[in-house]
């Protein structure tokens, strides 16, 4: 006998949208992790919190639409349609469409300049910038080239490019780097990495301001908001933002 809808548990791993059948189907797709080539019915049920009968009913529909495949041994794997959708998403992805709204959000929240740097050889390039709401601000423009080994953005780019050393190990652990007067004596900044598909480093998003306004205590206060933006940007670019969110609770 099919279970009544009101007795069906909410799925694990998704935020309820109000459309239960979609939430449950999406939970089944999200149950697959990077290391999973296939999952059993029992594994899908445990990971989603759904009854096995519900899993069977929904996987049949997902298989019909090529979002899942049922293998000969009864296990399930993701179907070819998930690859097609992912490829289409990445092919039409515009970096500015993802980053600029999030950078503006951080700028409106904190009032300070928000920048995004990418690595170019032994230097870093300021790709995007949202200016501070204050009249006194740090003078860095889009297109400016800066050193990699000085300043928050450069340190983050080096750390997540595999640079060895205790300093960079620490950055990789906490997912941020804060500096006061390192790039120049009048500038402070804190940056975090942004990743894309397969956790490939894309760049570093950061908050930058005059030393007179942004000290270490304030950067520590701003750090959770920065990591949240970095995590959300990473998720929208096809990466996993959970390490940045987990790092919020790691003391700096």
TrEMBL record:
Residues 81-239 form the IclR-ED domain. One of its GO terms (molecular function) is DNA-binding transcription factor activity. This is IclR family transcriptional regulator. PROSITE patterns: HTH_ICLR, ICLR_ED. It holds the Pfam family HTH_IclR. Residues 19-80 form the HTH iclR-type domain. InterPro entries: GAF-like_dom_sf (IPR029016), HTH_MetabolicPath_Reg (IPR050707), Tscrpt_reg_IclR_C (IPR014757), Tscrpt_reg_IclR_N (IPR005471), WH-like_DNA-bd_sf (IPR036388), WH_DNA-bd_sf (IPR036390). GO terms for biological process: negative regulation of DNA-templated transcription. Keywords: DNA-binding, Transcription, Transcription regulation.
